[in-house]
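cache lookup: miss for this entity combination. No prior model stored, computing from scratch. Input as submitted by user K.M.:
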Amino acid sequence: MEVTAQQAFDIEKIRKDFPLLEQEMNGKPIIFLDSAASSQKPAQVIDRLNDYYRTGHANVHRGVYQLSQEATTAFEEARELVRQFINAPSEKEVIFVRGCTEGINLVASSYGRKFINQGDAVLITAMEHHSNIVPWQMICEERGAELRVAPVNDAGEIDLDALYELLDERVKIVSLVHVSNALGTVNPVKAIIDRAHELNIPVLVDGAQAIPHTQVDVQALDADFYTFSGHKMFGPTGIGVLYGKEEWLEQMPPYHGGGEMIKTVTFEKTTYNELPHKFEAGTPDISGVIGLGEAVRYIQSIGYENISRHEHELLVYATEQLEQIEGLRIIGTAKEKASVVSFLVDGVHPYDLGAILDKLGIAVRTGHHCTQPLMARYEIPGTVRASFAFYNNKADIDALVAGINRAVLMLK
Amino acid sequence: MNPINSIQDEIIDEFAFFGDWMEKYEYIIDLGKSLPLIDEQYKDEDHLIKGCQSQVWLHADEAEGKVSFTADSDAVITKGIIALLVRVLSGQKAEEIAKADLYFIDKIGLKEHLSPTRSNGLVSMVKQMKMYGLAINAKSQ
């Protein structure tokens, strides 16, 4: 009998893959609704890490002995898995970094030192995470360049006309978020990339919140740089990926100096290693990379089609249910949204709501979500954010709604 | 016994009557709601202690080596805990404030609200209260 994708997606079976979902918090079964901050890990990833440290650990790229060669093979296999996963043309373009933040810092620093000069500009948007603001502020200050910010509308969508208005030949790079961590907005990155390319301006996409939810094809997007974190896509913390087009990476100076990234060293002159190693100084996070490879395998075993469908159902259900709570206002009502719902309840501070939900075993994020300028745009101190992964179910949302009702009763 | 500790012990005794966290939180929320803690004129940038989660305003007055505090927060649970901290420290001798060991927070089971990771402004506020105590004590010697 043919098994349809829908049948193959068994939420109860999937939940059993995540040991943490069986834990308690404050004596209550945990309702984990903070995957946008960091996702939980399936047993497959945890077991792979355990297995690697128990049976396969040695330093990579330098030992002549078998164990080191095996570790190197596992490490480079993971790179190939990631390459296929995002459809990068070459593994030279897949650089392992500590996370999305480091990916952006690497490009801001290396690309910036080479290509950004006095009087140039960098264009970002008003919905960026601090990690896609501060690195650009730093390089702009250093190089005497201007940081331009494209505004967002009340619904939480980029004002595209305004963005295109700001896009001129002085702009040396555009850096924007694919999916907003605070609002859930899915940005039309492909259209923005095409427009920037008409002026030969490269684009970096912060994909930290996109990759856990949606298939990313860097060639279809034609992104010049695309970066994301492993820990938000069911992999280990401390590992992430920077994809960059070879033509840019070749021209950029190294970011960090040290072992691995060199070809020859004398006190007079060092020549640098080939891509991707030129940007991977020092012993890499070997277990992190191997764990990330396993996370890629896990996502593929479930399938983005299933993930997207299930999460969209959760988003629609959560939005409907939350909107029924009196005085609750959803912040971020873009037409295209990922499974993130940010909200406020009239007369209730997000911290108070979060503190009571915590006691009920419900993990949500409260505060400004590292997007202070965006919160300032909406003139709010912060929000409560519930974010869903494919391992969440409608019962989680019901528990959230009941928790909010109970908290509001106490607080009002 | 030093007056700061006797107030702390009083609070610990009061909290012993609460059955569960709900009752504790309800009490703290009531404290937060009922107390006008700070003169509106002091709710400005100069008196603001910014936390990631909630904000706190703190004002100190000195008279005869004793420090009185008024404070406020935009979050009501934070404000309720502030009310307790003010009850313990306000009106005490500067020297005593500077060296106070605020054990009651842990004993009444609200330690998590005074953890730096909560980033609600309370940790900085306590530090600031002690700084006032230290500074005023140093000045008077």
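stored under new cache key. Helices of chain B lie at 3-16, 21-34, 76-89, 94-98, 104-107, 122-140.
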